[in-house]
Amino acid sequence: MNLAQRTELYRRLAAVNPTPRSDLQYSNAFELLVAVALSAQATDVSVNKATAKLWPVANTPQAIVALGEAGLRDYIKTIGLYQTKARNVIKLCEQLLSLHGGEVPNDRAALEALPGVGSKTASVVLNIAFGVPTIAVDTHIFRVANRTGLAPEKTADKVAAKLEKVTPKEYLLNAHHWLILHGRYLCKARTPECWRCSIAEFCKFKAKTPAAGDDAAKPLKGKPAARKLAGKAARKAVKKAAKKAPKKVVKKASKTAPRKAAAKKKMAAPKAARSKAAAA
Q1: Residue 263 in domain
Q2: Helix 169-185 crosses helix 139-148 at what angle (to 10 degrees)?
Q3: Model confidence over 8-41: pLDDT tens digits?
Q4: Are residues 57 and 193 part of one domain?
Q5: Given 100, 236, 239, 271, which residue has the most CB atoms within 10 angstroms?
Q6: Spatial distance between the Cα atoms of 73 and 64, rounded to a whole number of angstroms
Q7: What residues have CB less than 8 Å from 276, skipping those under 6 apart?
Q8: Hey, CA dihedral for 157, 160, 164, 166, is it positive or negative?
C-alpha cells in the first residue's frame, strides 16, 4: 500500500468518525490507567460495568489502597483474571503514591514499571491521556493491519512499529482509535461487514463478505468469509471422522500356510486309499 492509498484510507476513517474516543469509561488519567489495565483479556463492556460501581466509591490511588485487595475484588469479580488484576491494581496505586505523588507519569518507562502495566497499556495511556502519537496494537488492530495490507506483520510489536512508521503524521494521533473501532464494529473476525466498509477498495483481504441478498456466486472478491469458514469447518470434520473410523485389519498371508496345506493333503491320501479298500 503506497502513501497516497494510506492517506486516503485514514482520511475516510476520519470522515466517518472525526473525533474518535475509547469505549472505556473514565474521567481522568488515573481512571483511564486502571480501566485499561483491567481490560486485558476482557471486553470494554465488562470493564465499564465494573468501574461504573467502582468509580463513585474509589477513583484515586489513595481510595483504592484504602479499599484493599479484598474490597477491590468485590467490584471487579465479573472481569476475567480479577484476582490477579486486583492485586496488581493495589500495588500499582501504592507505587503511584510512593514514587509519583499519586499522579500518573507521562513517561513510558515509568508507566511500564508499574505492576500490571505492559507496553500496550502504556501506549494507550500515553496516547489518550497525554496526546502522544503512538499506536497500541490489540487483536482488532492486528487484524485490520494485516487484512488491509496497511502493516502486515506476524507479531503485535512489529505491527505497532510498522503502523507508527507508515501512518501519515496528520493522522497518527487518532490512528489507534480509528483502527480499533473499525476492527471492533466493521472488520470483525468471523464475518467482516465489507459491504459497508469505506476502505474496502484498498483492502487486500480476499474473502470479502457481500451484503445480505447479494449473489453469493459473485462476491466483491474471492469467497465470502462465511462460506470460507464453513468450508474449513467441513474439511476439519471430515479429517476428524477419518481419524476416528476403525482401520481395516488385513491379515497377512502366513509363510507356513502352503506347507501346512500340503501336509494335510499328504495325510489325507492314505486315508482315502484305505477307505476304497474297505469298500471293495
Answers
A1: no
A2: 110
A3: 999 999 999 999 999 999 999 999 999 999 999 8
A4: no
A5: 100
A6: 11
A7: none
A8: positive
Q: Is residue 82 part of a domain?
A: yes
159 touches 137 (CB < 8 A): yes
Choose one of 154, 180, 201: the last residue of a domain: 201
Give which of 100, 26, 27, 23 is closest to 61, Cα–Cα: 100
Count H helices and E strands in the chain, helices first.
Answer: 12, 0
Exposed, middle or buried by CB within 10 Å (0-12, 13-18, 19+), for 262? Answer: exposed
Q: How far is CA 172 from CA 108, 177, 181, 239, 271, in A?
A: 18, 10, 15, 46, 102
The model's pLDDT over 189-238, given as tens digits with 9 standing for 90+, comes to 988 999 999 999 999 998 888 866 554 444 434 344 444 444 555 567 66
Whether 120 sits among the annotated catalytic residues: the reply is yes
pTM, two decimals, is 0.72
* Pair 38, 168 in one domain: no
| Residue 138 designated active-site | yes
Catalytic position from the list 49, 91, 138, 158? 138
Provide the sign of the torsion angle of the four alpha carbons 10, 16, 19, 20, taken in this order: negative
Q: Which domain holds residue 154?
A: 3-19+135-201
Of residues 196, 195, 197, the one with CA closest to residue 179: 197
